[in-house]
Every structure is written in structure tokens, then in C-alpha cells.
Amino acid sequence: MAGSTLTLRNTQTGRILLAVTVLASTVCAAGQEPAGQSKPIQVQGCFLRLKEQAEVPARDSGVLQVFEVDLGDAVNAGDLLVTLDEKEAQYAVQLAEIDYRIASKKATESVGVEIAEAAMQESDQLIEQAQVELQVAQKMAASDVAVRISQAAESLATDELSRTLDSQREFSGSVSELEVIRKRHAVNKSRLDVEQAQHELSLQSLKMTGRRAYLEQNTIAGTRLKLERQDATTAHGISILTASRADAALNVAREKLDRRRIVSPLSGIVVERLKHQGEWVEAGQPVLRLIQLDRLYVEGYVKTDQIELTDRGRPVSVTTASPDGELIARGRIVFVSPEVDSVNGQVLIKAEVSNPKLLLRPGKRVDMTIEVNTGDRLGSS
Fold it and tell me: What is the pLDDT of residue 281?
């Protein structure tokens, strides 16, 4: 009997334990929020972190001459922060500008080419004229008409003199002595005319030789002028390339001068001076530290069963106390860590919030509420 009672008690106890277990499971299930739910999630103990900051380096080596900003100053991206000693760089730019102006002037003035072109045109005309004169001289040297005419005149004068002498011998007194002298003179003159024609024919041959030599001389001069024109064209091309090189050198000099000026890479506030005026700095060494405050990160941890990787983009609101009351900032989740902390089962999340009035400060503790999911998530497309 006692054994039966014990068994009953054990059976009842098991039923009670089973009921308690089922009830506890129901309560826990009701208290948990499934991943991807559309209910706000409260995340306490979050911290504001910087989204953007920069240790602004020197872009060249030199002495820090002028700090244009001081600690706490607000700057915009592109603002001048620090100037290095730039006298040498300025002189280099001035020299490069002078070299460029000289080279550019030489490149734009093609007088040498124009002179060579004019000389070539003149040479072509002289060659053409010499060719014509040579052709005329060749034709005149090849023509012996004047010689033959003078020879015919000589033959006629000789015949007339012979007949006159024959008539004088046969018929004494039929021809006067003066007529005989005239006939003899005509023969002598015709012989001289033949010699003159032969001489002129020889001169024409010499002229033809001279014209040929003149043509050859002008042809050689033309070849020389062509080479001079080619040389002038090449020199002009080199001057154009020299101008381009001088332009590139000027750009390099200007770039080196620009590298003597340190400008802000972002809009923010100067929070640290890492070097001082008058110090020597090497290229790449940081000089100032800037932080950006108008956009901040909020970091917090939530249970892994309360958030999904796809919740990136969910809206959030951040609250914190201030002397003027509670501050509220809004933003969106930009990062959900894929890693889960094996100790507490939480994951890191980051949200980006707007801070236009710069009232929120990095490092401050805040509370974050992950708002109801509207479906508008980053990367959802």
C-alpha cells in the first residue's frame, strides 16, 4: 500500500512538472519577439560614435608657416587649414610661366616656315623660267638657217663677181672698174656674213650650255630650299612640343605649390593640433585632427532573436537628456553584425543619425528605439 501511494505521488508530481513546463514554455514564447517583428525595440546603454574623422597630413615636406585655423574652429571641405613655406614653390611657378610664354610664342610664330615656303615658290619660278630659256636656246642652237642664208648670199655674190670679170675680159670697157670693186666688196661682205652667222650659231650653242647649267643650278637650289623648308617645319613642330612640355612643367610647378597648402578633406571641427607653427614636417605626417559631428553613429547591442541582417535600414530614434530637456535624433540602422556574442547572445548594431545643430556629442550614452519596420530597408532592392 505504501508502495502504491509513493507511485501515485510520483505520477502526480510528474504531471505537475509537465504542466509547469508547458506553462513556462508558453509564457517564454509569449515574452520573446521573433526576428523580423514589426514592433519597436528598446535598446539602452548605447553610445554615440564618430562617423567621420581625419588626421589631416602634410602633402609635402617643409616648415609649417601659417595655421589658418585654431582648435574648435568649424571648417568646410576644401577650406585652407595650414600653409607651408612656399617661396621656393612660388619662384618655380614664376620660372615655369616664363618658360611657357617663351615656348608658346615660338610655337605660335612660324616665320621660319613661311620664309622657307616663299623661297621655295621663288625657286620654282626660277626653275620654270630657266627651263623655258633652255628650250629657246636649244631651238636657236639647232637652227642654222642664218648660216645657210649667208652662204647662199656669198655664192650669189661670188657668181656675180665672176660674170662681171668674164664680161670685162671679153668686152673691154663694158664694165667699169668701180662696178668690179663693188662686186668684190659684195663677195667679201657675204663671206663675213657667213662667218658672222657661224659665230652666232656657236654663241647660241654656248648659251644653251649656259642655260642648262643655270637650270641645274636652280634645281640644286630648289632641293636645298626643300630641305630648309623641311628643317623649318621640323623646328616648328619641335617648338610646339616644347610649348606642350613647358605647359606640363607649369602644371607640375603649380601642383607642387598647391601641395604646400593643407586643405580640409571634410566638413567638421578642429579638435587637435599635432604640429606647431615653425616646425618641420615630412610629407604624410598628420598636422591636424578633424571630426565630423553633423552625422554620428549610434552603437548598441540587442538579442539576436530581436533583429535580422535584413533589418538594415530600419528607422530609429535616439533620446538623451540635456540641460534644455530631452533631445531626440532620428536615423536608420546602417549595420547589423553577422557575428553573435557567444556569452550573452547579442549582436552589435550601428545606426546613423543626423545632428545638424551639433547638440549630440560622440562618446555620450544614449537610448535607442528601433521603430516599427516600414519595409523601407537599405539594400532591400
Answer: 96
* CA–CA distance, 104 with 97 (Å, rounded to integer): 10
Order across the sheet with 62-67: list the strands. Answer: 261-263, 80-84, 62-67, 280-281
DSSP label at residue 314? -
Q: Which helix (H) or strand (E) holds 47?
A: strand 41-50
CA 277/CA 259 separation, integer angstroms: 17
What order of strands is seen across the sheet that includes strand 53-57?
53-57, 286-291, 268-273, 74-75
Q: Are residues 119 and 229 in the same domain?
A: yes
* CB 128 within 8 Å of CB 222: no
Calculate the CA 198 to chain-centre distance.
Answer: 78
The pLDDT tens digits for 143-154 are 777 778 887 887
More confident site: 372 or 272:
272
Task: Indicate whether 323 and 274 sit together in one domain.
Answer: no
Asked if residue 305 and residue 285 are part of one domain, the reply reads no
Q: Specify the DSSP element, H or E, that contains 88.
A: helix 87-108
Does 18 fall in a domain? no
Per residue in 103-120, pLDDT (tens digit) is 998 888 777 777 878 888
Dihedral through CA 169, CA 170, CA 173, CA 174, nearest 10? -120
Query: Taking the model in full, what pTM does it have?
Result: 0.59
Q: Which amino acid is at 55?
A: E
* pLDDT tens by residue, 240-262: 999 999 999 999 999 999 999 99
pLDDT, residue 381, reads 35
How many alpha carbons lie under 13 Å from residue 217 in its C-beta half-sphere?
10
CA 36/CA 372 separation, integer angstroms? 10
